[in-house]
Amino acid sequence: MRILAAMSGGVDSAVAAARAVEAGHDVVGVHLALSRAGGTLRTGSRGCCTIEDAMDARRASDRLGIPFYVWDFSERFRDDVIDDFIAEYRSGRTPNPCMRCNEKIKFAALLERALELGFDAVCTGHYAALVDGPDGRELHRASDAAKDQSYVLGVLTAEQLAHTYFPLGSTPSKAVVRAEAEARGLSVAQKPDSHDICFIPDGDTKGWLADKVGAATGDVVDRTGAVVGSHEGAHAFTVGQRRGLSLGVPAPDGKPRFVLEVRPVSNTVVVGPKEALATAEISGERFSWAGRPQSEGRFECEVQIRAHADPVPARAVFDDGVITVVPETPFDGVAPGQTAVLYDGTRVIGQFTIDRTVSAVPVAVAG
Which residues of 92-121 are buried (b: 16+ CB within 10 A; e: fewer)? Predict the structure, then answer.
């Protein structure tokens, strides 16, 4: 096959490309330039898209003896990932930019260009497995549960899965990948993993959002609507947060309070007891299926609401373009904007963006 290897400059994508070459494929490496801030370097940066990363990707390609290119996807990244991130926070939601990047950039824009240029598949260093099932290509969890990235890949469609290549899916651990990189003479063998949001290199999400969204003083209220404090910008809060609330009125029981809801229209933050974070139901209408589409009706599944959360057995209902999920045990602290990925065992069924949540704890009525 003709393989386009997406090379981030990290060890995983370098070893994935090396395995594609070793398997006898015709491989070309490409690094995506997702920012036009040309001075961004690893120093002070905690992302994965710096100039140094591009140089590391080039060195790895040279070592593997494959052609290498840098493609400018900065405009598409700004429109589909950064602007979406800002808009979601303005709406009081908690987005996952890595999901949007996989959905809109790596497996949409990049794959589209790859197919136009005659490539058969895009190769990445993600830890996930592909299985050819009776109804087509299936996406499954990786062998290494600690590194499994099937959650952030839950946005992939059947067509995208048909042109995707994940050489690391059956690798038992990251240590094996690093050892292989060392043996292959790849300079990124011991390079630290990237973390945090790549387009906020200093990690100060609160300050970055204040600059983009703006900050305005508002009320912090309890579940009955009583004012218990104030804030300097609702964008700085997310569901489940405990620290930084600066409440002027203590809870009647003296226990800590947590953010339960962010209301951007009224610039209000709602707080309450920890038990009120328990979520009995979630639903959404922005969804996709990872393979064969799910028929309308009820079905059993497991649901994961964060990249590193444990899956929870649940009952799902797909009806009139809306997915509603009721877990066997309540979720803890779910925010609108998060992604729920549905599983059948190790197989990814699909995903949806959470639009609505229902608390498992009703509001106490005074009197």
Answer: bbbbbbbbbbbbbbbbbbbbeebeeeebeb
Cα separation, 96 vs 128, in Å, equals 19
Any binding-site annotation on 55? no
pLDDT reading at 38 higher than 70: no
Q: What is the pLDDT of residue 37?
A: 58
Q: Is 55 helix (H, G, I), strand (E, B) or coil?
A: helix
pLDDT band at 197 (very low <50, low <70, confident <90, very high): confident
Q: Which CATH number is 277-359 given?
A: 2.40.30.10
Q: Which two tokens stand for residue 97?
A: 């930019």
Instruction: Give pLDDT tens digits for 289-309.
Output: 998 888 889 999 999 999 889
Question: Is 7 annotated in some ligand binding site?
Answer: yes
Residues 6+ apart with CB under 8 A from 113: 71
Q: Is 32 annotated as a binding residue?
A: yes
Q: Which residues pair with 258 in a beta bridge?
A: 272
Q: Which fold has domain 215-272?
A: SH3 type barrels. (2.30.30)
Catalytic residue among 49, 101, 123, 301: 101
Nearest to 64 by CA among 114, 14, 119, 23: 14
Q: HSE (CB half, 13 Å, CA atoms) of 138?
A: 15
Q: Among 15-24, 113-122, 226-235, where is mean pLDDT lowest? A: 226-235
Is 49 an active-site residue?
A: no
Per CATH, the number for 2-125+167-183 is 3.40.50.620
Residue tagged active-site, from 49, 98, 198, 301: 198
**Considering only CA atoms, which of 247, 281, 248, 275 is closest in space to residue 260?**
275
Domain range annotation of the chain:
2-125+167-183, 215-272, 277-359
d(CA 173, CA 180): 11
The answer to whether 123 is a known catalytic residue is no
193 annotated to bind ligand: no
pTM of the model: 0.90
Between CA 133 and CA 154 the distance in angstroms is 17
DSSP string, 20-41: HHHTT-EEEEEEEE----TT--
Q: Which helix (H) or strand (E) holds 77?
A: helix 74-77
